[in-house]
Fold this sequence. Notes:
Blueprint: E1 3-9, E2 13-19, E3 25-32, H1 35-49, E4 58-62, H2 68-75, E5 79-82, H3 85-92, H4 103-116, H5 129-162, H6 164-169, H7 178-186, H8 190-194, H9 198-207, H10 213-224, H11 233-269, H12 274-278, H13 285-295, H14 305-312, H15 379-388
Parallel strand pairs: 1-4, 4-5
Antiparallel strand pairs: 1-2, 2-3
Amino acid sequence: MVLFVGDxxxxxxxxxxxxxxxxxxxxxxxxxxxxxxxARLHALIARYGGERVEPARVVVGIETDRGPWVQALVxxxxxxxxxxxxxAARFKERYTTSGAKSDKGDAxxxxxxxxxxxxxxxxxxxxxxxxxxxxVVARAHQTLIWERTRTMMRLRIALREYFPAALVAYADLTxxxxxxxxxxxxxxxxxxxxxxxxAQITAALKRARRRGIDDKVTAIADALRTGHLGQPERVTDAxxxxxxxxxxxxxxxxxxxxxxxxxxxxxxxxxPDAEIYRSVPGIGxxxxxxxxxxxxxxxxxxxxxxxxxxxxxxxxxTRASGKATSSLPATSATTGSPTPSTPKHSQHSPDHPxxxxxxxxxxxxxxxxxxxxANSATASSASSTDASKPAPSTTKQPPGHTTLKPSPLDTKQxxxxxxxxxxxx
Length: 425
């Protein structure tokens, strides 16, 4: 007997539902976070699965792939599927379209999901401790970079509203540069910025190790003296306080990003697969760490190279069969399993036949295989001419319908018709 468990987690509790193989609800419960909750879950599984239930016959669906609770489930031998929240939200639309939130309803949907669609999901991989450590620091480093970008955009918006000359003056230095942040903290409003001396600007640029300082100092000083938008004094003071705060936050983020970058490199270089990743052209320590973090190092996680490409969303699509062989990539936040994508191809009208099918086998995406029967000097010219020929119509027309006969093609123009009417371009 296989038991299916849906686990809707929160910070301090878990709503769970246990189903059998036919989808019958066996039990529901709200369990506390921690050892007590895990013990009660084991007791429920033993009650409905038998005292000697095999852990591998317990399938759990939960919207996360990390944390003490998940590690306890994996350590118990259960098959745990870390489901992407977006996938779970789409699945729950089968039951209701109102979007109403219900913890018990979410647990029920997760149990149904691992019971019905687990073939489309990916179980949490058994990554090594080193790979897990790389994942933690690599994701934290990337998150801080995203936070810095958000704060930098807020700073840019504030400057545009009361001090656009600063954006012109510091355009070559970037708003996240140490010298730009120093000068903004020192002179955050147009009046004080116009009073900055060349010595103050030069000192800031030297501390940031800029090159060609003399030209940059002249350009900055001239731009800062171009005037301002004439905002009221109190409004300007309020904006200046906001800019100082944003500059301080970006300065702190720059420091912490630099510290985390060292940790990412240290953990990544200590992994036995680091040199393999670094051997790929264009991949260094930071990029390699992110790739390792998202792919993991479980040797049994991917059945083949094709499966790995499917997980990354880079597998080509075979158009000859009209079916997709690629899948959507998982989010870095939850490492949810990819959902197979089967795009619907639009129907071609009878007057415009479908292009010749392409075969992508081991060829790069978008490459076409030329038919062996082509007799032209170049494959591209032959395929272009063949694709432009109208397909024979076999569809029966309704009574009274008259089909316009297209004019013959002008073969001298490589398949381009000289007719101006009849539906041909």
